Amino acid sequence: MLIGNFKETYADDEALFRTPASRAGLAVLLAAALVFPFVASDYLLYLADLVGIFAIAALGLNILTGYTGQISLGHAAFVGVGAYATAIAATRLGLPFWLSVPAGGLVACLAGAVVGLPSLRIKGLYLAIATLAAQVIFEWVFTNWTGVTGGIRGLNVEPAGLFGFAFDSDRRVYFLVFGLLALLAYGAANLFRTRVGRAFIAVRDRDISAELMGIDLFRTKIMAFMISSFYAGIAGGLWVYFARVVTPESFPLSLSIQFLAMIIVGGLGTIKGTLFGAVFVTLVPEGLRAVTQAATRLSPDAMSWLAPMKEIVFGAMIVGFLVFEPHGLAEIWSRVRRFFWLWPFPK
Amino acid sequence: MTVDEFLQLAVSGVVTGGIYALIAIGFVVVYKATGVINFATGELMMLGAFFGWTAMTVLELPFAAALVVAAAGAAGVGALVERVVLRPMLGQRPISVIMVTIGLSSVFKGLAQLLWGGEYRSFPPIFPRKPLELGPVILPSRQAWPFLIALAAIVALAAFFRFTRTGTAMRATADDQATAFGMGIDIRRVFSLSWILAAVTAALAGVVVGVIGGISPQLGAVGLRIFPVVILGGLDSIGGALVGGIVMGVLENLAGGYLDPLFPGAGVKEVAPFIALVLILMVRPWGLFGTREIERL
After folding, report:
1. Does the interface predicted TM-score (ipTM) exceed 0.85?
2. Which of A73, A98, A325, B21 has a CA between 20 and 30 Å from the CA of residue A39?
3. Do B136 and B110 lie in a common domain?
4. pLDDT tens-digit series, residues A32-58
5. What is the number of alpha carbons within 13 Å of residue A89 lying toward its C-beta?
6. What is the CATH architecture of A40-342?
């Protein structure tokens, strides 16, 4: 039983990982993440890359929606902007990946600032509809601005390379994705210990009182949109080097909804929850696939249920979490942790 | 482009717009009563269309009876959904309310695929073959009749709100919940009724759209098109939904007719209403007839 966790300096109190146990947990997690690509199968690595890229995008969405309270139904469009910008920087300008991916992030960041402009005038449900329109319009541009985006045929990109080492398999891309994920998750966690991040939270909790405390609402909201789409753009850039091709149908409205599902299932306004959510939402359909494959032994046409079952489970998951566990997996996690801390006493 | 072509585009735009208006009214009724933006509207349409289709092809009922079956089935779904899912969400953050309806739409889509399969189906021929001629404009009867059905449903709804006791109670609740509650109106019943009404209008619209173009579980995608409509009309205005529906129907048809030749293969029709939507939100977010309640900060 943990009876107390006493802090003797301000630095202790402000640390990101406050207890020896959580620091040890982090070390174990990082070690596991490093060993994983050497032991896992190709399929698992493919899934891991997908989870990592989605987690980066979902972190961005959680900064905007979970921490700042601005709903965005157009996050996939920003991922798409980042992906196209990266692909164009890599193919037309011949930039190496360590320049093209940040370039994608910056372009997405600018797109986010433009879409964020109306957030000063409208909020809540109206902002959701405005970002929905942005999603539809961006998708249309991806498909139809053929001179730049290559239309429905898309753009093909060479694998990323660094000092002659080519990131040409899912196993190698893994290091790229998870390196950036670690960096960006650390950045996001730190963001909310700064003035800017605190301002985001203040705007979410009550915009009027935030303004009375001297927070410039317009700048703060635009900043949230920009940081959020920067994360989306980086995820898009990684997607380019992961899939090696960008096509318009990779960034539909349903992907935006999937990102929202991740942060809701994981927990709005928590970094840890975002990571949980990205893993959970990406892996549940895979689990279903495994179950249906097993069920084909009982009934040969079981595979035809897979697509509808995925839809139903996805929807039921969102509804179920919102109704029964609105704080998401992060809350379940801390409940479990609390139980072990206090054991054998009840909470 | 000649005047005749313009009229042809405009009139078929009005036809599409009438159907948009019918869906939008259901959407607005729910928004007014409960403050929920219903992203599952399109899927309610799709379910209603499948109910109607099943009634006609499997049970071999006449079209009028199929409309009743579709409406009754959808009403059941609407009531169930309101009671089980939406009521616990009352007063929650907008993000939760939006996502819960999005989750529902996904469940509905999956259920429809399980029950009816994913393939495309069409209704048996229902209306007389002869097209309707309005001066220079020719309307195929499978567009004209659905439009008339949509119009009839809209008129019936308007009469319901204007003349019946329940309709008045619903308007009172939308105006001021607390006062309505104080006057002895059963607010919960109004919430439930508003979802039932939304489901019924969506189902009628779904059957109508299905008769025009066939149905599949993907039919619900049309539901996105009502956002420009309700924003133009004003989220909480029933008259606005009517006007917005028709304006957007005409707008997308004209945009398609005039701009498609400039952007070959681009489908301007699909995107034009959303560009209009962004402009409206920038200039006049409460729309033509909506309540100006948006705080400015």
Report:
1. yes
2. A98
3. yes
4. 988 988 888 889 999 999 999 999 999
5. 25
6. Orthogonal Bundle (1.10)
